[in-house]
Amino acid sequence: MYFPRSGNGGYQVTGYDIQFRYESATDRLHGQTTITAQATEDLSALKLDLRLPASVVTVDDRPAAIHQDGGKLQVTPAVAVRAGAPMTVRVDYSGVPSAIPNRHCGASPWLRTADGAVAVGEPDIAPWWYPCNDHPLDKATFAITAVVPTALQVISNGALLGSGTGRAGLAAVALAAQRADGHLPGLRRDRSLRHPAPRHSLRPVPSRLRPDAPPAGRRRRPSLGRADTANHRVPV
Fold first, then answer.
1. What is the pLDDT of residues 196-223, one digit of tens each?
2. Of 81, 176, 186, 227, whose CB neighbour count within 10 A is largest?
């Protein structure tokens, strides 16, 4: 049995491109997630699961009206999306995940460590760090770019696509994973991960990743520049 308020109807997600910057000292996360989906019915509005405050949302590159309440983000596009049509929803958001309690048990599933955080509290964790259709029936592909202080390391699902360092002591790690439930991607970033990054194929197993590790497979270089650079809009 899944949580009755989790998940949303009217569309099927095909992919998530999650890009975020994490500040370990304050536990603040600044993110931009791009969701590709297909409408399964005419949509004058749609809902996403997100616990962090959203600031700007676009649907097919047009500004959308938003209303957020109780972990649900309602998005009203400028132009209704017809049944069967593809759509791209981009959400900018920011907040402190550990400060947001779980409505079922009170404690936040986002766990802070001495110098980082862990996001593995299945099944109710995804909305604490990215907007999604949080239901196991809606599977999608994932691309994740994490920008963290260079002293930290990152672990998550998927294959390592690339890594690099930029200004202000920040490092970025890019990953990709095959189709999975919205709540399955896990994330951890702190100094305690000291394992080398293995080479592996795209499969849903945790992969220990370091910002200085060589990429496996094709290379993707995360942008560490301006917030509006192509394909990477997370401020660094």
1. 333 333 333 333 333 443 343 444 444 3
2. 81
